[in-house]
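Reopening: ABC transporter permease protein still failing for me.
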Amino acid sequence: MDLFLDNFFNLESLRQVYPLLLQGLKLTILLALVAAPVSIALGVAIAVAYSFHRRSLNLALLTYIDLFRSFPVVVLLALIFYGLPFFGITLDSFTAVVLALALNNSGYYGEIFRAGIESVPHGQREAARSLGFGPIREIAYIVLPQAVRNVLAPLASNSLELIKATSIASLVSLPELLRSSRVAQEQTYNPTPLIAAALIFFVLLWPMARWVARLERQTLKSR
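Support: Ran it again with your exact input. Result attached.
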């Protein structure tokens, strides 16, 4: 038992590297705080554009969604960070990670918001038009609030997955939590930092996971 604790829960190792883990945690949170709103905004734009039912536009949107959802986000990041310089476009690591997460997740958010918009009864839109609402005001004030309420559970679930996906930043040597824990492990020759990183992720995400589960149960009960 002592050997197990010394290898996986070594407090002395943790004391040496905890500033490194805190730095990684801050960067992980920052990535999520930037990537999630960008992804959601793109997803809303996709869903709203799709709701106008223009054949050529819808075809382009579906192609965009299928394209970026088909790429594993790690592969997408590699193409952005290592491939774009061949075309004269060089992005820093942070921007590349945010762009990869946004392109990948915007497709998922777009489909979620599209389902939410389509779940709003058509009569609601007709009522808005009868009150003199233009297309933009109709979407913003009548359709979207109801759509978001209808798909809150999948929105929260996808956001949870996005936060976990920030660990791809280690691919481009960005010191988020996972990479920081690996560097700390190399410094201490002990896996304790990796265990600490896993526990930090759990503490950070478990409340959100429980909230998602509660939303899903409420959605099932309301059907």
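The CA atoms of residues 116 and 147 lie 4 Å apart. If you still see a failure, please send the error message rather than a screenshot.
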